[in-house]
Design brief:
alpha+beta, 8-stranded mixed sheet
Length: 193
């Protein structure tokens, strides 16, 4: 499966589906990508995440980066992110309990459109990532599943840390390599590699 559905949160917000673009037909991929490029950051968020066009350009330049978009069923994208197997810095991997870097998938470049922020989209997307990481392992032809999903979130982003914790990620420690200051490493074990 390459599109994962999320249940609506308690706030009665609309559900979202998470789509791994590499697993979609070219025409659908192009349509979803065009919608993702229209996503806009809120004021001051460019300090923590690049605009959608930069996230997409970095993914197109690196075959190890895989774009995912979130959208309501049948709707336009409301969020964009990148799954990057083997992309976690060594300092981050060291906090994950002995797992090898090749068994770790870094979730990066995550942005929720400013019009969709505050409605639980971030938590829902992150809660759906383990299933999409499983799909990614199949797309990449891995013999074994990935072991850990990880992301870093800026120390100053309390709302992001809360959203990721609600989605099942746990704080694994500090990472000082972020371009916008100290980060917290948040991860979820996915099973044995």
């Amino acid at each position: 499966m390459t599109e994962r559905a999320g249940a609506p949160p308690a706030r009665d917000a609309a559900p979202v589906r998470l789509v791994l673009l590499d697993a979609r037909p070219p025409a659908e991929r192009a349509t979803l990508l065009a919608g993702a490029l229209r996503l806009r950051l809120g004021p001051g968020q460019e300090t923590f995440v690049p605009p959608a066009a930069d996230v997409v350009a970095a993914a197109h330049a690196d075959p190890d980066r895989h774009l995912v978009v979130a959208r309501p069923p049948g709707g336009d994208p409301v969020a964009l992110g990148v799954l990057h197997p083997g992309g976690a810095p060594a300092e981050v991997v060291a906090l994950l309990g002995g797992v090898g870097a090749d068994d770790v998938v870094l979730f990066r470049g995550f942005l929720v459109d400013v019009a969709s922020q505050g409605g639980g989209v971030g938590s829902r997307v992150v809660s759906l990532l383990p299933g999409v990481v499983g799909d990614l392992a199949r797309v990449r032809g891995r013999a074994t599943p990935f072991a850990v999903l990880v992301l870093t979130v800026n120390d100053r982003n309390a709302a992001g840390r809360r959203a990721y914790a609600r989605a099942g990620l746990t704080d694994r420690g500090a990472y000082l390599g972020g371009s916008a200051g100290p980060q917290r490493v948040m991860a979820r074990d996915l099973g044995p590699p």
